[in-house]
Amino acid sequence: MDFENITPGASTPANWIESRNPAHWTEVIGRFPLSDASAVDAAVCAARAAYDSWRLTPAPRRAEVLYRAAERLSRDKEEFAQLMTREMGKVLIEARGDVQEGVDMLYFIAGEGRRLCGETVPSELMSKFAMSVRAPVGVCALVTPWNFPLAIPSWKIAPALVAGNTVVFKPAEDTPAVAHRFAQLLIDCGLPPGVLNVVHGDGSTGALIVNHPGIDLVSFTGSTDVGRLVAHACAESNKRLSLEMGGKNAIIVMEDADLSLAVDGAVWGAFGTSGQRCTAASRLIVHESVYKPFTDMLAARASALRVGDGLDEDSQVGPVINSAQLDRIHDYTQIGLADGAKLLCGGERVSKGSLADGWFYSPTVFADVAPGMRIAQEEIFGPTTCIIPATSLDNALEIANGVRYGLSSAIYTQNVNIAFRAMRDLSTGIVYVNASTIGAEVHLPFGGTRATGNGHREGGHVLDVFTEWKSLYIDFSGTLQRAQIDA
Asked: Which of 87, 173, 296, 461 is in the most buried spot, having the most CB atoms within 10 Å?
């Protein structure tokens, strides 16, 4: 795939980045520009120039572009999934799900084009009408990660556009091909020039965008450490900011749980996308009465998972994204061993035969983990999970809430009273009962508490990020009415 410039006014770049297949590192997927300050400025200026025309386009007309894009993406689902697996590594069944999430989000947000609802309320004065409406924010910088290279961009781009904003989009440097192809699809479906602009690059490019004076809003998904830097930069220039950051998610397994179902959920949550999800189930808090049977079942299942190229339909766990992430995951294995955790399976790189030139890591399970160990506190972002014993529901809830993150959590129980206590007391933005920590649906709010984010939500309430509230008062009394004073 060769780069085609889709930012009006941008020049041919001097430097390029290569997108490579993490399952076969010698395979180059495509070449993309490392955008410099002039390219970023061109993208922001194009978005600024297109803003007035786009915000004045009726919202239902803006939504029609998204509807056409949903239709096109649904038609091209397999093409996108194949490209995603080659570029990011996740197994095909998951790549298809990633694309489907983009389809779902486009359809969902297209419907909002006729429901950008405000409120009408009674005025406190006679012959006066009061209401509120949503207005676009302006030029939005959207910075997305590599683990969901189509779904997460769709979460941000679609609502930003339907609300009447224009966009500067920077995808992760590890997955430029999928993101660029998605942006081109949107443009092909009718976006006017300058409404959606793509810049490619690494963190330095992201910093140029975040600090650009022509940006009104930044929506960032990535690590908590980088998100903190973005927050500082936005505070300096008073930019509106939405952050979606890390997670250290727990599944609680109570003594009355269906253990087979709980193990299914743990395997899916811990090793889906090779553990490279902010919602991954990296902690399994298991009641002591079922600790041994659960542990034995999970270790057997994890050991039997097939690691391989995601394009192979028999593969269950694909590669991790790059060599640096592979090293990070293995470093955490050594940390866990040094802290006294018991390694049940995995804990090693996989590099034999056809996997020799890829970044593969074996599904890893630690048992007898103390809640304060680093592997139970820090986000690993790989196919590693740890089992922590608990003596009671109160103890399990205390452990689950005892991390700095608050994204997703789950509990397996047949007791409705326990389930409702957990739903009330788990301090996370998402709670599942008898399901894993992954699997959010696009029409519900997505986001977390504490170090996971800054309070905004994507998905169901995402328009609150990409719109401003405007209050309107219409006085038809023909006289001067003074609120509060003349009441």
From this structure: 87
